[in-house]
């Protein structure tokens, strides 16, 4: 669907047309036919539903892996395995969209593994460093 917007930038008005490609996903409606009773015993009121399994978090050692907050490239690794780190201590520099972002420790502990190398590209959620 094509949508039109009028925007003003530094006092100049522009008419912008945009195609809406995302939008909120709509769940399909599935209707079930009523079950046919074949016995005199009533069916249970509710059946257990199978819940989706939680997504497995990548782990490379004992402890909590620090995940990449966004996709990008590793510029610098500031710690090594065995280092003691404090909460909010910078662990590595991640370049994303031409900006350098510090990835910091979310708690104090010992670095047990480093899952990335300088120059490597990572996706959001990838395990970077594990702290125990």
The overall average pLDDT, rounded, is 76
Secondary-structure element sequence? EEEEEEEEEE
Could you tell me the strand content as a percent range?
35-45%
Helical proportion?
A: under 10%
Strand order of the largest sheet: 3-10-8-5
Architecture of one domain, CATH level 2?
Beta Barrel
CATH superfamily annotation of one domain: RNA polymerase II/Efflux pump adaptor protein, barrel-sandwich hybrid domain
Count of separate DSSP helical elements: 0
Q: Stretches where pLDDT falls below 50 for ≥5 residues?
A: 46-61
Distance between the termini: 50 Å
Rg over alpha carbons: 25 Å
Structural class, judged by helices and strands?
mainly beta
CATH class of one domain reads Mainly Beta
Shape: elongated
**Main β-sheet description:** 4 strands, antiparallel
| CATH topology tier name of one domain | OB fold (Dihydrolipoamide Acetyltransferase, E2P)
Using DSSP, what is the number of strands? 10
Describe the structure in your own words.
The structure is a single chain. A hairpin with a 2-residue loop joins β1 and β2 (12-19). This protein has a four-stranded antiparallel sheet with strand order 3-10-8-5, with no helix packed on it. A four-stranded antiparallel sheet has the order 7-6-4-9, with no helix packed on it. The chain has a two-stranded antiparallel ribbon with strand order 1-2. The chain has strands at 2-9, 12-19, 64-67, 72-77, 84-85, 90-96, 99-104, 109-114, 121-122, 127-131. With 132 residues, the protein is mainly beta. It has a domain at 64-131: OB fold (Dihydrolipoamide Acetyltransferase, E2P), CATH 2.40.50.100. The protein has no helices and ten strands.
């Amino acid at each position: 669907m094509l949508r039109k917007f009028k925007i003003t930038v530094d006092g100049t008005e522009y008419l912008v047309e945009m195609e809406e490609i995302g939008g909120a996903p709509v769940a399909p409606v599935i209707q079930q036919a009523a079950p046919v009773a074949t016995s005199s015993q009533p069916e249970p009121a509710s059946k257990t539903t199978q819940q989706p399994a939680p997504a497995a978090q990548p782990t490379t050692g004992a402890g909590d892996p620090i995940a990449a907050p966004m996709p990008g490239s590793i510029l610098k690794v500031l710690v090594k395995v065995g280092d003691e780190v404090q909460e909010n201590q910078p662990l590595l520099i991640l370049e994303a969209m031409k900006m350098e972002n510090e990835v910091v420790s979310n708690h104090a502990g010992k670095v047990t593994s480093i899952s990335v190398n300088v120059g490597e590209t990572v996706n959001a959620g990838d395990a970077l460093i594990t702290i125990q």
